[in-house]
Amino acid sequence: MRQFSSSSIVSEQPWFGLMLGNSRRHWAKLAGTTVLEAWNEENTDQPPTFTDNLPLLVASVVSEPTQYGATSPLVRALTLADVPLNGMYSTLGIDRALAVFGGGTCYGWPILVIDAGTALTLTGADAHQRLVGGAILPGLGLQQSSLAQRTATLPTIEFSQNLPQRWATDTPEAIQSGIIYTLLAGMHDFIKAWQTEHPNSAVILTGGDRTLLHRYFTKQFPDTKTHLLVDPHLIFRGMAALKTEHGW
After folding, report:
1. Cα torsion at 22, 160, 214, 230 (round to 10°)?
2. Enzyme group, top EC level (predicted)?
């Protein structure tokens, strides 16, 4: 169980950000708008103990964050109403809203964010900071686990650090090929469609599988790599922008 103490933080205006995701808790320690440290915990882990009085911004896609002291004046539970993104719908995940807001704030509008987490989501906003829309599909790990759990003989696999051969000669490699190449083709198609409508838009890849997918994608589509940036902290950049804007 992790403990936090302000004695180890020397930067001005320190605070914590917490995103409660589908399968993990995502934490960051920030000073102002600068991410000092970020780490993840499984949702089954015991929540950490706080030994200081630092502010905490928390958002959740799974439940109300009551166990994190949401009644404390130092804890602010974020909702969609806090995010200044036009055109949002009521079931939009706050993780997607924060990531797009953080991306637009840091990289400019319009913006397309691809979050490679448990689910892979694509979320775009236009030059007027209005949500255009997006898409959701199973991420790398969810696709492979569903095949292993819902079939009689297909094995659990580990994804190679390098782009596998398309035409596989054994079952584990065939699973890798099927998942990876169809996922990359889908990403590429969405990016092309987005850049046709928004040619000056940045495209940012974030989420736990960002590094692996970026390596695959730039190998498969080398002509597109200058258009695909990687930023692991978009959600926390969104939180930081809100904190600065509202003076929390």
Report:
1. 60
2. transferase
Spatial contact of 2 and 42, defined as CB atoms under 8 Å apart: no
Model's pTM, two decimal places?
0.90
- Look up residue 219 and give its two tokens: 């190998």
CB atoms within 10 A of CB 133: 11
> What are the pLDDT digits (tens) for 171-201?
999 999 999 999 999 999 999 999 999 999 9
3-77: CATH number: 3.30.420.40
Q: 3 falls in which pLDDT band (50, 70, 90)?
A: very low
Report the candidate in 105, 76, 118, 116 with the shortest Cα–Cα distance to residue 213. Answer: 116
Instruction: Print the SS3 string covering 133-177.
Output: EEEEEECHHHHHHHHHHHCCCCCCCCCCCCCCCCCCCCHHHHHHH
90-115: pLDDT as tens digits: 999 999 999 999 999 999 999 999 99
- Per-residue pLDDT for 224 more than 90? no
Residues making up the annotated binding site for K(+) are 115
How many Å apart are CA 125 and CA 93, to the nearest integer?
A: 14
Quote the tokens at residue 238. Answer: 């969104």
Binding-site positions for substrate read 89, 93-96, 171
Predicted confidence (pLDDT) per residue in 110-136, tens digit: 999 999 999 999 999 999 999 999 999
Name which CATH class applies to 94-236. Answer: alpha beta
- Do 3-77 and 94-236 show the same overall fold? yes
User: Annotated active-site positions, please?
Assistant: 95
CA angle at 189 for the pair 187 and 192, rounded to the nearest 5°:
105
